[in-house]
Amino acid sequence: MIKLTPPMGWNSWNTFGEKIHEKMIFETADAMAAEGLPQKGYEYLVIDDCWSLKERDALGRLVADPEKFPNGMKAVADYVHSKGLKFGMYSCAGNLTCAGYPGSFEHEFVDARTFAEWGVDFLKYDYCYHSPIIPGKYLYRRMGLALENCGRDILFSACSWGADETHEWIKTTSSSMWRSTLDIFDTWDSIKDLVKQQEKLHPYNGVGCFNDMDMLVVGMYGKGNVGLKGCNDVQYKTHFSIWAFMGSPLMIGCDVRNLNDETRKILGNEEIIRINQDRTCRQPVKLHGTWTGDELLLYARQLENGDLAIGMFNLSDGKACARVNLDELGLPLSTGMTLELKELWTGEVSGVKNATIIRELEPYDCAVFRAKLVEL
Ligand code: GLA
Predict the structure, then answer these.
(1) Contact 237, 345 (CB under 8 A)
(2) If you take atom 1 of ligand 1, which residue's CA is the nearest one?
(3) What are the pocket residues of ligand 1 if the criterion is a CB atom closer than 6 Å to any ligand atom?
(4) Along the chain (376 residues), what's the average pLDDT of each consecutive run of 10 residues?
């Protein structure tokens, strides 16, 4: 399976943890379809850990928990497919999953075939309880091969949290995405922490295998499995903008059955999604700029039609003022070129004076521009 742009969808873990069952998954599929999420690009519905029984069957196959999934996984896959979505599941490279259910170690080929028979299109593959002797890269290559030979196109989503220098070998496996961070929680500190963990890993992101900064917490407001304190809408907007800008997969983690308008607006911003899905998948450039405030990130990215994306992210709880000189983007005045900016949250269009973009930002807020080159 070759995935050319960052995968998008929904995953059960952030909100539901072990409290997953057929009815909730069907309702989620209904809600995703009713909200028009597949049309925006959110195509995968993924069930995370805790879906199986604690024992395999007599033939060594994984068995769906009949209390949670009374009609089996094939029925779930069929329902999800009937809503225009693709279906994802979860397993682990170890003996056990992170929550203590059977992992796929030494069962890789039989499990890949089982997933294919059920109609699975995506496999998230975790790293708990893995062998202390066999290197992780062997385990991910093994499951990757099993999936590539199972008779169905199944996206392989590696989840080894960047451990054991994952970035150095992940592209030798058939993964289309790999977790480049530890687990997210629904707090502003967790979001900031993951952004920092990501910084040195930008060069490893690219077409075919994407750095996965973990599922989104947008719209959780502290409810659910990784709920904790929760964030406000400005923080969610900035969180979403950064994940999109960095080319991370965009996997929704909130309860899509009860979206409010603000969450809808954030997850549904097509211009921001367009930057995320830009087919060049070019690496973001960290800009120096000059700024006042406590913690500000400035980034740019070249896009497929010659445009630039420019992101200003205020991570602090105070106001900030950002200045970006066009020299850093390759556009000094001597080129005779400048930029026309469109801010993608407000829609405001503006020019650039004296080759400098200046913006004030409220606490936690961001500005994301799509910039077109124009003559001076
Ligand atoms: C790990 C992963 C999470 C989630 C849980 C499930 O912590 O990183 O994303 O899949 O396991 O137990």
Answers:
(1) yes
(2) 98
(3) 13, 48-49, 97-99, 126, 159, 161, 183
(4) 96 98 98 98 98 98 98 98 98 98 98 98 98 97 98 98 97 97 98 96 96 98 95 98 98 98 98 98 93 90 97 96 95 96 98 95 98 96
